[in-house]
Amino acid sequence: MSLFQSFDPDDEPKWRRLRQLRAVPIRMVLPSVVTLLALCAGLTSIRMSIEARFDWAIAAVAIAAALDGIDGRVARFLKSTSRFGAELDSLTDFVNFGVAPAILLYVWALDDAGSVGWIAALIFAICSALRLARFNVSLGGPKKPEWQSNFFVGVPAPAGAMIVFLPVYLELLGAPHGVLTAPLVIVYTLAIALLFVSRVPTWSGKLVGRQIPRDMVLPLFVVVVLVVALLVSFPWETMSVLTLMYLGALPLSWRSFHRHMAKDAGHPPEANGDAIPEGGDDPESGPPPAQ
């Protein structure tokens, strides 16, 4: 028997040839293309951080977050979800919202603290990976009430990546960069990292946006245009305000979640303890990270 046997296409079973020649619908490819564009943005953010162009690095992460919110919706709209897309989405999220922010913070300020600063960056990236892994595992859990889809367990990765930049926003607004910058950034970075892996319920807003009252359509357009205009004209002021609003809403989301739990259980919220479900849609981004 020859080690390298000759191959005759005519001898190959017909069903196998047909399977190889079968074209892949473009709708199956588009969601992964969007995910790869998000990955390109995240990797570009790492380059911008190394070059100390921190404003562009933050903008690249923001673009990655926007694309991350699109790919899952595109996949479901085109009915092209796949296991491959889900795995690619998770790996992309780790790079964009775990690695890229950690490198930006380290190059910007944490390197002033030496190894301690690097450890803080590592913890942030690791907590991001754990957050994503926990969400992926929770997708196969038991079905939960519909209202729980309006809550995440812990801060989602894209939101965590944007709010951890608050110290950078403040410096871009003119805050001084002194000897206390690195220690304060370490504490803040570790706090956001813990929010990643915490069981704090946070609003997702998915159920709110499914239907909009007819009389609120025009005001909604105005609000969206206003926010976009503020982001373009006053990016760091707007991002700072949005970050503080998000952090200030965490206690309110906790209270709202336990009110729902108390309503379902028929007893006060205190009796529910920390019974927070692992599930819920997540922008890791967007509804399940499947494509």
Automatic annotation (TrEMBL):
User: What InterPro entries does the record point to?
Assistant: CDP-alcohol_PTase-I, CDP-diaglyc--ser_O-PTrfase, CDP-OH_P_trans, CDP-OH_P_trans_C, CDP-OH_PTrfase_TM_dom, CDP_ALCOHOL_P_TRANSF_CS
Print the keywords alphabetically.
Lipid biosynthesis, Lipid metabolism, Membrane, Phospholipid biosynthesis, Phospholipid metabolism, Transferase, Transmembrane, Transmembrane helix
Superkingdom assignment: Bacteria
Please give a single GO biological process term from the UniProt record. phospholipid biosynthetic process
Keyword Calcium annotated: no
Q: Name all CDP-alcohol phosphatidyltransferase C-terminal domain ranges.
A: 216-251
Spans traversing the lipid bilayer? 24-46, 52-70, 91-110, 116-137, 149-170, 176-197, 217-234
What is the name listed in the Swiss-Prot or TrEMBL entry for this protein? CDP-diacylglycerol--serine O-phosphatidyltransferase
Species name: Bauldia litoralis
Q: What is an example of a Pfam family matching this protein?
A: CDP-OH_P_transf
